């Protein structure tokens, strides 16, 4: 043997030299190895350390050390053991297993006889040595490594891993991301020195230099490609077989490299410019790293570019010294527009992702496929690509009959394949920065959308799972606004359902509609129109156009004025003086000190333009004999007010009555500079009478701040509604309609006064005669709170035996002259305790209903109870024929007091009985004729008054004029709406359905009929659909219930006007209210008490016109016809404007840029032109987390930051967004992100940190934050706190805290009143829970459990956790080492690695190729040699190894010296495929 031949190292097949565990062993006699050598001298495992290696003349697979080209052949047999004798185990001297196999095949005895090893598990004393050689220890180490690598439990956590987690961090929830985490992730993606990829880049760099020198450009550019691509694995494998080194997996590790040399690209400028304006010079290529990894699918590629520098050492025109990469946006921006999009990646600090990956992120993240599953998806695809390469490599090894092949690199091996999928943090950081840069385009596109018909609603559910700080939700509601095409028009994360948080959002929407030249919003659908209407009308003035609100008095007869009462309207000074003087004459020239007072009704009209002070235009006066209106627009000073008018206004002997009369006189005093009026108002008994207070005195209303419309309806039983006028109608010339309204308004005040004058006063102390009048209606009052209503009982016996307990014990209460006996008829406050009885009002009412009270606590009461607010119309169900004993009397008085309205929630998915008919429940617009057509006789509807005359020429003039007048009247009625803020039918139905039992047998029928009662189908569409159904023998009733969605797309439906709808729904509710369940009688009536209360509110909504379809506004779009020639409609808010699923991309900035280029080029784009280039319209619209309102911030001491308005090209970190190629992965804390989006100095977040808990607890009970007035019980003590003052004080402390505090657990953050109130409610709930458990009886009941849970015996010693790093005792070790298979055994060939040649101990041995046979079918064993059968193998233990006769396979050898061996089959078992088991 050649003494210079390298000594092979004992490793298992294909192991790369130098891999495995790092060994820190001293050198004991062996010379040190060269770490840079590709071939290391090793000692055979079976030979003593001092034995010289055997010589191997003939061909050898060991190649001399040389540097080959990158794609040249690699040595595929590094480190294979070379043995010149029969191999034996170093520790026992036992012959190797394959030695006996060879003996049986060759018929010869082994060359060396070895003693049989002792039994397994025994340790012979004569074998024990106190020392171990270096070679033996290395051998032992490699065997242990093999055991670890082939352990079937090796993939399970062994318990010795350091987990990056902390209990303290988990409890305190320390925020923020490790700032080096993503940098480390990017750093591991760089190619290591001496790795396969690094060698590829070095060779590529040299190759590019040669190509540019020779051809002036890289060859890939000349062939029309940016990529320098290695050969496909198929061709790389095929070429390597012809090389001297044979197959090498390194050929499959190479990656595509994107070559980006800007100066060599088409259209590149001769010299690139620096920021300073001076030319740049080329500065070579990068060295560390040479190329940047770009994450892509299915495998990463690398980006290689050059550098530029503004050379400061130039002799002429020296530069500033700034350097640029060729991938810098500044360089790319100087290239032609058609070249810039070719750049394939977005670059981060030390990494990059392909644009395709970024587009996939945008697409998947928008569909609930977040960063974590996306990172896993990329990792899975890349691992599968790696597995395909390994499969191709191993299949080629078998196909070409290669022996001693190298092991394929693992995916993570940085010296080999070097796979590096992106981490979750890296993906999240890139996407966040990308969206932050392009957010302005998204917001501009949303701001450019129309909003003719709006739908606005709060959503609560999904916010429970997103946006939390230390367990506390940052937001409690999301407010969404959709337009008529179901496009998102506005979105805001809010702190509560209060509309004050979205006021700025609506203001921006109005600005966006104006900037995009869209019409204003005509109709708005919401889930609570009655409470939100005033808010929306105050922001969007278009929602008030032609709106006549419906009140409970709208349907009353209109107010009429006595035509005999003279009216006068004057405007010039002389006429005003004459008219006022005539009024004084009528009043008899009353002196200021006269005891005879006169009454004058007074009203005014004012205007206030933006930026101007309030101006007085009209003064209306009504006496018993005349009505006068003075236009005083020009009277601005005291001298302008003539004496007679001043006398009427200031004379204390003339009582001025009116609605809000005090405020009316204050306006007159300020406008006309009459301080005398203020002096009169401040007297002890000013000469004024407010109609609201007067109505309360007469028992008409409980609330004195009632409108004039309500006063007219309740007192006069007449409807008084002001007509709609143009803005500022009183300063100019008034019309007859306006004049008539001025006269009628002040006359209405006068008529109300006269009507109230005749009524008895209520709410006063009883007079002596009333206190002894039997049946006198009284109200029992404690302090100022009415607690019960009753009747005086007289005469009486002078005492009352009051029941005091359940045993009917009584207490005698005397009725003294200062006391009265009453019979309670209605309890207003059930829990109010009556002092004389010592019992609650509810107890007294339930035990005789008689009470002795102090007479001074009784107030008079009218026969008709006063109305609470004048806005609720009462509805009572008809009394059922046979009411059950437990039925509650459902009276209007009970409903009037109920203030509980269930919160509006999303639709319950369990309501399957409703979904069949309302999934596409879209309202339709009908003419008034169509409405009547559905509710009246057809003969009355289809008659045309002009049809009998044949043509218009034959119609008499009087008939024609009558028809025109009726038409104009219908048009006039259609021009007005009760409201443009409407209720959504879905939420309307849900409010009642969610209160009904779904188990009731009538539920599904009611849900279906509920929808049928609301929506009326179009006649022509219905007839057409029914004809098609009859033709195909399909039942109409079946189609309505089972296929409602399909019908609703082909039949327009209409919600009729309020009168028709109210009648239909009242009938529906009366029918179903008391239906009993036929399945379970105990369920009782269908409508519960809560449902009956809700019915009252629902009918009031209908009566006010909030549910009916708006007249004159179409809510359907005709999309086309189906195969049955039926019309197919799209309702407002269904799908989108096209009615089909969108097919395209969402990079609207690219779309707009294409349109601009197409216009400049004079061609049409390949897609339809967009309605508007939305990204080219500068707006201030925003979505998501909105800036805090400046008004709100100013009131709460929150320091705000200016909100930028970008009118030019949008930039992100000083780079135009459309030219961005660099993104930042620097982690941004949640607090910083919120602070930037909210545009405040410190984030506005809920109470969540340890320091905030301490501060809240220490200051919540401070006296300055307490509200005065009523004291609430402990569980409602949050009502006593003024949270607005508390928030103001809190935010001041935030502004004063030190800026050096960076720990989030020690900082204070801005708060809104809602944050503090929510946290206080939580603390009260926790306190109530603790109090409940600490109560005497409860504490005693829990004592036994507490002792068990807190005892010392409540601990056990749990069995230790299982560690899978060691195979448990008693189980068989299935590794090859335990079966005495030598480490040098070739698992593929069934024999040791031996060089071929005449000196080989096995010159005639032909290794068989390997055939991988999948299961099933099973493999049938074949004879091992002719006439001899080997021992059977256990199919459940590892691989089964079989061989076949050489004649079964005929394959031409592809390599010199190779022969066709007998095939051998490897069959995978149930166990881990990496384990090998051979049965003896």
Automatic annotation (TrEMBL):
Q: For the region Disordered, what residue ranges are annotated?
A: 1-73, 103-126, 1389-1408, 1418-1480
- Composition skew (Basic residues), residue ranges: 9-25, 1468-1480
Hey, what's the signal peptide range on this chain? none
Q: What name appears for this protein in its UniProt entry?
A: 3'-5' exonuclease domain-containing protein
InterPro entries assigned: RNaseH-like_sf, RNaseH_sf
Q: Which GO terms describe its molecular function?
A: nucleic acid binding
Which residues fall in a compositionally biased region of kind Polar residues?
108-126
- Origin species, per record, is Mycena metata
List where Pro residues composition bias occurs: 45-56, 1398-1408, 1418-1433
